[in-house]
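User: I'm writing a tutorial on reading structure tokens. Could you give me a worked example: one chain, its sequence, then its tokens, then a sentence or two explaining what the tokens reveal?
Assistant: Sure. Here is the example chain.
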Amino acid sequence: MEVITVDKDNRDILNLLQDELDFIEKGGYGRSVRTPWKPTSTFQDSLTCLNFADPSRQHPCNECRLIDFVAPELRTANVPCHQIPLNEAGDTIEDLEATDSQSKTEAEVKAWLRAQIERIEAEHANSR
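And here are its predicted structure tokens:
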């Protein structure tokens, strides 16, 4: 397996969120043909993650662009991006993955991504 390394995460947040949404919409978190018994993990199993395909997790999560969406008191969690509140009820990826409903998790993540993309695009339009 090839390990992809990224220095500091300097990617544009809008592009990052758009790419993640595209990844999910194309079935990116479906079970792998090579390892169908292994569940996938939102954000960690996509190119969004600085440590994608790197079991040694060389990069600390605080270098990730998603850390800004995590409450400061939760940024030291094992997987901080799983602590992002996705909806008004405050459900997180960690909460939703515990229910073992891949379709519900993906629906909530897609809705959250769309809302963030829309917000950022509006901010960019207003700043012009």
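What the tokens reveal: Confidence is low (pLDDT under 50) at residues 1-7. The helical segments are 13-25, 93-98, 102-126.
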